[in-house]
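Lab notebook page, bench 4
Experiment: in silico fold of construct C2
Operator: M.H.
Input chain length: 134 residues
Purpose: comparison with the prior construct
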Amino acid sequence: MTEDAITDHFIDLLPGGHFEVADDNTFFFHNADNKFPFATLVTKDSEFDSASKLDRPGVFRLNIGVGKETFRALFGEQEQTDIDFTALDRLMPHPVYGKMYWVCVINPSDKTFETIEPLIAQARSLAVARDRNK
């Protein structure tokens, strides 16, 4: 999938959501307050996050905040140190925010995107619940 196709999917699937583009990265919010994204599309490395080597041509990473239970169901409770964070089309813990229960996939294929669609919906639901509890 392309970045544009993913963005269009977010807009179509999650009505009432909002997104912002900043520094060529896209941040998806459940409403227009822009407090905390539930997912992001990142297109380049930063000084704090370069493990995925996003400076490669045509490479981007979809990041999703899935919550503790889902994260542990996917990856267990042990910190995984042998992950190739440059691998394409593979769901994995986020290289920086995995400790905050974020997952990621670099350049997801259509098939991989289909498998993570429930994670996207869950991430948005978690963001909505977080705001309700404030």
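Observations: The longest strand covers residues 18-22. The CA atoms of residues 14 and 121 lie 8 Å apart.
Next step: discuss at group meeting.
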